[in-house]
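TL;DR need structure tokens for one chain.
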Amino acid sequence: MPIEAVDARVIRVVDVKTPGSGEQHRNRYEQLALLRPEEQIKFVLCDRADYEWSRETCERLALAQRCGVLFSPSHDQLPARELADWILADRLPVRLQIQLHKYLWGNEPGR
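>> reply
TL;DR here they are.
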């Protein structure tokens, strides 16, 4: 959805869909230029291929210079520790974010 329609008082966290999600075709890269420094971009990663793709996308679009970048492991597909190791090894300017709702409530709909 277009993010410029969101009230300016809101701090936006925008998802960038990775190839492993099957939703990559829905990305609206032109919207990323609208993000403010206090806002964030989130990548949910399914595997190493998603990690490489996300890392390259961040570099190509200079996303870490624009706003905060979150890398989140897909709960059932990628161990958080493995993703943390990759981020540290590459010294990426991103933050690791786990899907906390999955740890608290599992896949319970609506939670």
